[in-house]
Amino acid sequence: MAIEAVVFDVGRVLYQWQLSHLFERIVDDPVRLETLLTEVVTEEWHFEHDRGRTLADMVPERIARYPEFEPEIRAYATRFNDTIPGPVPGSLSLVERLDEAGVPLFAITNFGAEFWAGFRPTAPIFDRFRDIVVSGEETLAKPDPAIFRLAERRFGLPAAAMLFIDDNAANVAAASECGWQVHHFADAPTLEADLVSRGLIRP
User: What's the predicted TM-score (pTM) here?
Assistant: First the structure.
């Protein structure tokens, strides 16, 4: 089936994301930093916010468990945008080219609702998107097939008519199993070549 829309992931596809980018600025001790990132403020714990848990629930609970890391845990909650260094090189220009070519754009992102509310206003590229499914708002996260079914209903197109782009292999596999066309993102030049080959943008 011909592709009628392109659906992007956000983190590590359109924008870089690394918890360490924040904490390397505020933690001088390398041993403390390593413990923080591997035991305290981990991506696995962060994913609970992506799935819909509120910071009001998560942060006090984590502080109670790791009281010696209270400043860093509070920084995670208040300075999340500092975990996002900037766009993935080359990706935003592909969004612009697709939009200028008249290709409808959507996104499905694992992103906490509170963090999305703080980040979205800093990223005008999303003005080009017709709709964005945010996991924290829906209390559904990739790779749960339910979020892809929800997106299909929201976007108003059959799965097979949409190209889904994500850096996470499990998310790509789940989308494929739900009938979406997929691209496992590695970098913008590889994605550009795929979009050109599919006739979505010109070389």
Answer: 0.97
